[in-house]
Amino acid sequence: MGAFPPLRDDLGVMAGYHSAQVEVDVRLNTNESPLPPPPAFLAGLAEAVAAFPMHRYPDRTCQALRADLANLHGLQPEQVFVANGSNEVLQCLLLAYGGPGRAAAVFEPTYAMHATIARMTGTAVASGARADDFTLPGVEVRRVLAEAAPSVTFLCSPNNPTGRAEPKDVVEEVLELAPGLVVVDEAYGQFASWSSLGMVGDDVPLVVTRTYSKTWSMAGARLGYLLGPAQVVAALWEKAALPYHVDAVKQAAGRLALRFTDEMEDRVALLVSERERIAAALALLPLDTWPSDANFLLFRPRARAGREVWQDLVDRSVLVRDCSSWPRLAGCLRVTVGTPEENDAFLTALEAVL
Ligand code: PMP
After folding, report:
1. How many separate domains does the chain show?
2. Within 13 Å and on the Cβ side, how many CA atoms surround 269?
3. Cβ(31) to ligand 1 under 6 A?
4. 50-105: per-residue pLDDT in tens?
5. Is the CB of 264 under 6 A from ligand 1?
6. Residues 29, 64: one domain?
7. Is the same domain home to 50 and 27?
8. Nearest protein Cα to ligand 1, atom 2
9. Looking at the domain assignment, is residue 3 inside a domain?
C-alpha cells in the first residue's frame, strides 16, 4: 500500500474562506436573499421535475437557458456561459486564462474568493490596495498592472465586502490599461444603479459575472453565469468546464426563475429601502460605516473590538460576518440586509451591545 501523497505545496499554505454556520434566529452573514422565491416558482419547478427524463444527461451546453439569459440582457446565446454558482464560473475562467506562469490581479479589500480560486488554479496573485475610503486609485491600478502583467484582472461591483459599485470611469480605465481579460464580478449587480453589462462585446476583453444566489433567491440551487465575448465563452465550454456540469433540474430552475422578474425586482426594491433604513440607524451609533450599493453594509465599532461585538451579537442570536481579521478590515463587521423584522432584531441587538 502506498502512502497518502502530500498536498500540493501551493495549497498547503492557503487558508479556506468559510463563514461560520452557527445556529441562530437571525442569519445575516452570507448576503443571501432573506425571502424565498415565489410559491408559483417552486410549484412550477416541482411540476417540471416530475416530468423529467432523469436517466438522460442534460443539455450539455444549456442552449435554452443561455437563450433566455441572452434575451434578458440583450446579448447573444454564444456570449453566455453557465456554471454551478458564479464561483465555478470564476474557476473555469482561471482554469482557461490563468494557471502556472500567469497572474491574476485583485484590489483589496475585495471578494476573497478571487485570490483563493486563482491560487487553487496555480495562478499567481498580484494584489493592489484600495484607498482608505475603499475607492480604487488609478496610480495603484497602473502599478499593479505594469508590475504583474496579469492575464486576468478582477473588479467587483458592487465590491464585497466594502459595498460601493465601481464608478464607470474606473472600469473604463482598468479596461484600457489591463493587458488581459477584465472580469467584473456583479454578484450584487441588481442592487446598483449601473452595470458594466453595456460594455460587453465580442471585441472587448471584458466579462461580467452574475449569480442566481442573491437577488433571484436561489443560493441553494447553485447557478451563476457570465456574459462576455463569444470566443471566451466557447473556450470555457470547450476547455474548462466538465461534461454536463450543469444539471437538468438547475437549467429548468434557471429558466423558470426568469418568468418571475417582477417579483425579483420587488424584493430588490424592498432590500434597497431596508438598506437605507439600516444605514440611517447605523449613522446614529458609535461606529464607522461606509455607503453601500449592495445588499449588505460594512461597519466598524469605534470603542470595542469587532470580534467581541460579533460574539455579543451571536449571544443575542444574530449572526453577521466577522471581517475583522481580513486584510485592511481590522475591526470591521458586515451585515446582510434581511427582512424588516430581522433588521429590527439586528439593530436592537447592536444598540444593546454597543
Ligand atoms: N462573487 C461575489 C462578489 C460574492 O459575494 C459571491 C457570494 N458570496 C459570489 C461571487 C459567489 O456566489 P455564487 O457562487 O453563489 O454564485
Report:
1. 2
2. 6
3. yes
4. 988 899 999 999 999 999 999 999 999 999 999 999 999 999 999 999 999 999 99
5. no
6. no
7. no
8. 187
9. no
